[in-house]
Protein: Homoserine dehydrogenase
Organism: Candidatus Monoglobus merdigallinarum
Amino acid sequence: MKIGIMGFGVVGGGVGELIATNAESIKRRSGEEITVAKILDLRDFPDSIYKCFTKDFEDILNDPEIGVVAEVMGGTNPAYDFTKRLLQAGKSVVTSNKELVAKHGTELLRLAEENNVNYLFEASVGGGIPIIRPLYTSLAANELTDIYGILNGTTNYILTQMIKNGASFEEALKGAQENGYAEKDPTADVEGFDTCRKTAILASLAFGKYVNSDEIPCEGISGITLEDVAYAAKFDSVIKLLGMTSRAENGVYAMVCPAILKSSHPLAGIDDVFNGIMVRGEGLGDVMFYGRGAGALPTASAVLSDIIDTVKHKQKHIRLGWSEGEDGYLLDSKTLPGRFYARFKRNGEEPFSGDGFDVITLDGAEYADEFAVVSPSMTEYDFEALLDGPLAKYELLNKIRLVAE
Ligand code: HSE
């Protein structure tokens, strides 16, 4: 099978490298040789082992020998238009482009089905971790109920540096960028948008109906301070950025926010650029996925797994079970009960106490006028009422939406 690659950046370069180095095992597993026929990129790569670069998309579209194209350009433009035209031309497309899948996945999957080809996106969530395919194959017999995931390597790396080394946010971000983990614009990582897109993809696949990432409440880690990290540590916990989604009777919940996880929580020990995803199903219980969530070769490995899968299926459409969304399907996350953390300045007021609340204080003169609370389980509406009521006399310094055992 001849393939095309669109975008020869970190991931595209990794795909080229893996095809060259693992040619034998790829052939053994897919049943035929996979060769790169054309690579689309506007830049020049005079030192590459590949000599098939083009700057013109039509060269890939009109090459009748190319059956599968790896779209690893990122962004929605021009990737959306290119992907549509390729699928309509009867070519399968595999991608790491979570932005495109989260935005246009429903339409692109429909187009793939209509043209009896594939649109596969294992690399869009969790980098090298197999998580997308298990949802529509190995776990397909289960009624899934919840997914909790550390889905962004950059923010996990930053938080780990803050927790373990007391590093500043800026120092840690620089390290992530130097290692090629961060998005071009780190806002997408830091403010949770990347996690949000991945959460939307997981929710759409796990529960069968499209969830729009723009509608998922999303909070990143830019408001997390070393003080919050210290209060969490006193509570025997760590702070992680989580994407979560849960099925309810009349729809699904989904949200992205920093979470305070007790050290015994299965996701608490997942550090650095690693991602971890916990999938819960009725009867199945909990299943954990763990591995490198970013970087050239882990992500390329997932892209290639999709290429091999589509070659093995002789290009025939593989059903993922993801259908159109519906108004009202995504439920108001503020009605989902959970525990909340909030940190306050006392300004000389008596410390707070309340039934079911954990009150955390830190040693040291700089913390003498501060405290933090972890509420009992309640809805966000109820917690907001407390902040406006009995807690209103304290100065709110920070609030974290989710505390989990
Ligand atoms: N910027 C992303 C991350 C890359 O840090 O996880 C992988 O999707």
Notes: The mean pLDDT is 96. The first helix runs from residue 10 to 21. The radius of gyration is 23 Å.
